[in-house]
Each structure stands twice: as structure tokens, then as C-alpha cells.
Amino acid sequence: MINSNRNQEPGRESARGYTMVELIAVCTIISILAAMSFALLSRMRSQAIETNALSALNTMATGYEMYYFYNSSYPQWGPDRRFSSPQEIFDHLVEREYIPRSYSHYTYDPDTGYIYGFTNSYAVEIPQYDPVTSSPSSYFIVLRPYNFQRDALAIGTSLPAGWVAARARRGPEDVNYQLYRLYVPHRGGATE
């Protein structure tokens, strides 16, 4: 038998391994692929959270529109209003099935006025009725993020001070898109 490795002792088999350069190259490629996939997964998770929040806003807006259809006004809370708190509005919308019963598992914090548990990352705020800035034919619902890395989102029929219309709510062809708009906090610059 002819031995092709000249530096090897006769009788020993060749046990060639990977060089250090090859190992470093493979580790570098794996690291780059891992970093790219982590960034992609992070972006996809963020988009999923926003989609969930937008779905929750649309669900609330649909519940408000159904309430308006049967009562000729939007549910509002405050002095001289039908409801005394956001919790009563929310309970009524669930009880009448204007919003799905799956949203009935929530926690209301009377100190902040926020409803928690409607989404995993946002708290629902239903601002109190103000006769100066509101009318019975308007509403405004806000989703406040649990952390401060995201913007608050809101939907409603009117544009309160400090908010900018972001995009029209998606719906059937016969929906007046000017009535149902998604809002984000105003950060300066041009507005619609």
C-alpha cells in the first residue's frame, strides 16, 4: 500500500481535521445568519403586536358602531352620561355582544381608568365625555402601550388636540372612511 502522506509515520492512519481558519469561517457565517434571523424575528414580532392592537381597535370601533346603530348615540361616560365609568361601557358592549365575549377577561384599574387584558401589549383608555370638545355623535378610543417603545394608537370619529390621523380604518366598500380613522400622537411636522 502506498502512503500519500510523506510526513506520516508508517502504520498510522491519516486523521486530518479542520483548520482554524475553516472553523472561524463557519462560526462567522453562522453568527451572521443568526443575527439576520434574530432581526427578522424581532421585526415580525413587533408587526404581530401592532396587528393585534389594530384588530383590537377595530373590534372596539365596531362595537361602538353597533351601539350607535341601536341607540342613536355612542356610549360615553362621565357626569350626566349613561355610563359612569369605562368599565360599565366595556361590560355593556360585551353583554350585548357588540364586541365578542372573548374580550370579557380584562382588568379595570379605576386609578388610571385603563382597561388591561384587551390586548397583550396595550391598555385601553376610553376618555371621559367632555361637553366642550366632544359631542354625543363622536367617540375616541386610545390604546396605551405597556412599554414606551411603541406609540399609542387611537381610533374614533373625531380628531382631538395632539393627535394626527395616520390612516383610514379598513372596512367594507360602503364605509365612510373619513369617519373612522386611526390616530397617532402628534410629533410635529405636517399633518393631514
Model description:
With 192 residues, this protein is an alpha+beta fold. The model is unreliable at 168-180 and 188-192 (pLDDT under 50). Strands 1-2-3-4-5-7-6 form a 7-stranded antiparallel β-sheet, with helices on one face. It is built from 2 helices and 7 strands; from the N terminus they run H-H-E-E-E-E-E-E-E. It has helices spanning 20-71, 86-95; strands at 107-109, 114-116, 122-125, 140-145, 153-156, 163-168, 181-185.
Cross-sheet strand order for the largest sheet: 1-2-3-4-5-7-6
Question: Which structural class matches the secondary elements?
Answer: alpha+beta
- The general outline is elongated
The CA-CA distance between the termini, in Å, is 85 Å
Oligomer: single chain
Give a quick account of the main beta sheet: strands, pairing sense, barrel closure: 7 strands, antiparallel
Q: Proportion of β residues? A: 15-25%
